[in-house]
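Quick one, probably user error.
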């Protein structure tokens, strides 16, 4: 297929990627974009006709297919139909949107909340709405791409501090002019490493240098805290974060993103953030599903406890076999492989033995730090986790990662 007969930079970039994908496929090392045909109980899936244990899902509390949540979505379709036909500001706001935002505000111990149609759009829009030219943003080097993109789009001075390095952050804050607006932003739980941001120190620095604090809770909602309400509960620091961002697509089995904050900030975002003003409202079924999911988390706190047990079993087991799981303390469990090739080969071994894990390679992580990125959920059975660890252990021995 030759659309253009040129050899410009775009053509070369496209070719570099298509060549890489083709090479991986030739060697049976390509595992991305595989369609799941069926979602089965106990975190199992049917892929390519085989039933596999799913270790790449973000459904941390196992809420996908929860009867109450499915029922709420179906009822919303019957009541409102399938779309909103417009943006929130005009005809798109339904009572279910307001109910959902009130629910999120309560769950997150905040005055108010606003939702967007994805987590990605939330970060992009919120960071670039709050910050602008002449302001300073301070972002952890391992922050999610949506935060990075929001910072770049804002036009603010962009300073990146070494991962979870509060001394480095303080140095950067100290060097910024004292009278400019400052925003410090980080993931609560890092999406490739599973470690937790040093919130207490970060809050202290934000107070000292008069900076706003925004935290992305994509991987801590439903995961951190006894009730699963997130990182403020985990550190017993309710009210410490100015702007609490999260997604409705991970623990919450829906789609969308939110910001929970004080009333003024939420009102401002409703009238100034472009992803809210210029993009259609969440579909009714997704809003209702998200709303019900928050209720289920509160009604079934055993899920959070179960997730913690499974996480301990999984990390402890992999470590005792000799794997390097980096600094994870959460349901995101990296299994360090080193070179990209090793991560791909580990994936092939695991998937051929019906354990669905995926590799993360450069440039998503630094070269030499390629890994399997496994996730564990409340829906996994302990003996199934044992089986997955046996498979990963066997693969690790075969590839020389462990003895
Ligand atoms: C997944 C994720 C997002 C984006 O959320 P979506 O709802 O999938 O767009 C944002 N931030 C972090 C840290 C994430 O892991």
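Nope, works fine. Designed sequence:
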């Amino acid at each position: 297929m030759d659309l253009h007969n040129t050899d410009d930079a775009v053509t070369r970039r496209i070719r570099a990627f298509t060549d890489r994908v083709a090479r991986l496929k030739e060697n049976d090392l390509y595992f991305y974009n595989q369609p799941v045909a069926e979602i089965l109980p106990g975190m199992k899936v049917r892929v390519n006709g085989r039933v596999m244990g799913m270790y790449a899902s973000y459904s941390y509390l196992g809420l996908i297919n929860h009867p109450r949540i499915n029922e709420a979505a179906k009822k919303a379709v019957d009541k409102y139909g399938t779309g909103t036909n417009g943006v929130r500001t005009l005809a798109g706001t339904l009572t279910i949107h307001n109910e959902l935002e009130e629910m999120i505000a309560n769950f997150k111990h905040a005055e108010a909340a606003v939702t967007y149609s994805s987590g990605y759009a939330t970060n992009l829009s919120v960071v670039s709405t709050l910050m602008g030219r002449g302001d300073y943003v301070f972002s952890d080097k391992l922050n999610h791409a949506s935060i990075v993109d929001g910072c770049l789009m804002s036009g603010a001075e962009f300073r990146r501090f070494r991962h979870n390095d509060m001394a480095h952050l303080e140095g950067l804050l100290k060097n910024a002019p004292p009278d400019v607006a400052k925003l410090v932003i980080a993931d609560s739980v890092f999406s490739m490493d599973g470690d937790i941001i040093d919130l207490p120190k970060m809050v202290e620095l934000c107070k000292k240098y008069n900076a706003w604090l925004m935290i992305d809770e994509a991987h801590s909602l439903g995961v951190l805290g006894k009730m699963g309400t997130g990182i403020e509960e985990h550190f017993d620091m309710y009210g410490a974060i100015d702007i609490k961002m999260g997604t409705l697509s991970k623990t919450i089995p829906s789609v969308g993103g939110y910001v929970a904050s004080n009333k003024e900030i939420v009102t401002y975002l409703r009238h100034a953030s472009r992803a809210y003003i210029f993009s259609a409202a969440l579909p009714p079924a997704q809003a209702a599903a998200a709303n019900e999911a928050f209720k289920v988390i509160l009604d079934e706190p055993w899920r959070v406890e179960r997730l913690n047990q499974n996480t301990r079993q999984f990390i402890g087991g992999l470590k005792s076999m000799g794997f390097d799981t980096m600094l994870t303390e959460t349901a995101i469990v990296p299994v360090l492989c080193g070179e990209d090739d090793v991560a791909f080969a580990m994936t092939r071994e695991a998937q051929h033995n019906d354990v669905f894990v995926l590799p993360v390679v450069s440039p998503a992580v630094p070269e030499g730090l390629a890994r399997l990125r496994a996730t564990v959920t409340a829906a996994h059975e302990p003996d199934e986790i044992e089986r997955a660890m046996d498979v990963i252990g066997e693969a690790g021995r075969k590839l020389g990662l462990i003895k």
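Residues 26 and 369 are 24 Å apart (CA to CA).
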